[in-house]
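ok so I'm stuck.
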Amino acid sequence: LGEDRPFWGIQAPSVNGANVYFSTIEESAAYYVQALKRVRPTGPYLLGGHSSGGPVALEMARLLRDEGHDVRLVALLDSFAPLPSRRAARLYVAFQNAVDDAFWLACMLMLVEYFFQTRFEVGYKDLRRLSNDQQYETVLAELKRVNFLPPHSGPGAIHGLVENLRTVI
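replied:
not stuck anymore, here's the structure
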């Protein structure tokens, strides 16, 4: 974007298999604000969030503004709207905790099918019959089969994707 508008992309560490998970959008945002400030200690900041990163970008803007930084833009691309009330947030957290990993894995597969115009051979009904480890291995194999993940990827990458879905959807 030019020398006067450097661009940095921040990806959740868990997506690359690191054992770093955030249980809330606020935790994610605090982590990313620190990462951003290491490369750009002061603003003005122009922030963006794609998909599940949208609510995180909003929270990052709030944190930065609370610290007195100049945030001039927050762009959300294909993101969910933030929850409007504490009651809705509590209901959402209850939903997150009520569903099993097979549900989240199936959601992830459906998103990949839609956005990458591919088809998977397994779904929720198939996954829920498997042990937790088998679910992750099956989804990993499917994602590798359609070249969504590199061949050397391990189940940790899938765990990271599921934890990200759980936190922001």
